[in-house]
């Protein structure tokens, strides 16, 4: 073969040379790795090039908010047409840069409170949306076609060599850093303080290009704190059904909980209801979840043995540090979280349980609401069958026996939605057609934004009962099983009563009396903690709730 | 406020409580109060609902009708004072009030 006749690339290190040039421009400006905060915007103008793919770190907790504001102040004549690839659109500057033309294209996971404005900017042609991802999807693409050229990250502290300490909110930093640093990308870190020696090295300094001490500590939101005072009797009833009808039945030991009041109710009746049933040591032993304060009583009473966290939670730092047998703790004594690993652990667990806004007759569920572009976050990866799983566990095998009654024996992950049939204001949870269809048309999406697909879902728990979709043999049966627990919604009222009785005889529908749940006990009295103050007491004073949750 | 009145044919042949004692089950929460009494209604069941939310008469009829049928009730009077409870809460309170009645029964 004559090599000379083939086209040859010839240049193999252009990214690295380009990085060297950017670094030189930045150093010329700043004089070293640590830059004074007033020079941050100038630094960005020096090292960011038009059209760059850029990540501004921020998940639903920790945010590189100072760097985000500094980026919004660059001169659009110098820096423009950026392609933003980041998990969350949560802060106003995240969208300001689209309004001014600094950024043009967006690949993201979740928009939360900025969902309405994002939708307006998309309609106005200011934001070109590539795709909406789950966390694992987007970070996977960081290692394929969406590697950032520049990443703006947040850490707790740095030393003068750029070694970073993230503190308990490690979150997404390792994934972002890994992709950026090892493909010749620029890493700029904002830190709360520059120190002589960091308590532990979460990111080695030679991976970091520049460090800036932010004028104010980075923004953290306590989004996983649920006040037990707001949990209702109905939520306690549903929690009792989950414990008896699912956790006890299958022997669920490894699981992920959503972050709503419904799952908080489960956590808070483990030390009472599940303890009475003799289930300690048999259920809920390993969890992939943030350190939600409502977990404290179940940890203290010996139910939950180990928890790996995607992030931390404000006020829980000291409690977590003092429970190093339960949480993942560094040699320095503080937690190290990691969103990607937590998502993976949850994906391969025995069970996911969460809540949703709408469920259709196939069991597809969506949290999409009219006029907002909110996205997916982590629920689709937690709430889906793990088809690559091969190791057995009692819960997985038991569910597998129900799911695969013929042919090759398989296991099955339990994926559960826990919902009241009506939301506030009597909006029905069960619908014939998801609003997601309308949203697809409005925003020109390739598919309706479904959070958990019906064929991934195994159980629906409502105040009326449990639908076990594994025991339904056809879509018609599945629809009736769903109608059979849909209460007095339009969908529920249209049930075929005969078919529902048939499904109930088979165990595809279970009502409280079928699983020994005594409705008389369904009251807040069953909660191990009925207030934030109770949680503080359970924690022996180690939990320090943020001021807004203190009402005593 | 809207006042709704319902009457259901109860389970045939259900006797009044032996000594005719008036037994009452009462439960209340933030937005719902339920009282259940035994009464000689010729075998039927009656319900009166005072609700702050208009236009849900059909749903009330279904919820209470299902409760009467599921428990096989007769000669029962239900009084409900509603401040906007969901059907879920209504059914839970009815079940709990009924359980309270059962506990006190001879």
Automatic annotation (TrEMBL), chain A:
Residues 372-394 are annotated as: Disordered. Pfam families: Mal_decarbox_Al. This is Malonate decarboxylase subunit alpha. InterPro entries: MadA (IPR005777), NagB/RpiA_transferase-like (IPR037171). It comes from the Bacteria.
TrEMBL record, chain B:
The gene is mdcC. This is Malonate decarboxylase acyl carrier protein. NCBIfam families: malonate_delta. It comes from the Bacteria. Keywords: Cytoplasm, Phosphoprotein. Its main location: cytoplasm. It is found in: Cytoplasm. InterPro entries: Mal_deCO2ase/Cit_lyase_ACP (IPR023439), Malonate_deCO2ase_dsu (IPR009662). Coiled coil: none annotated. It comes from Ancylobacter koreensis.
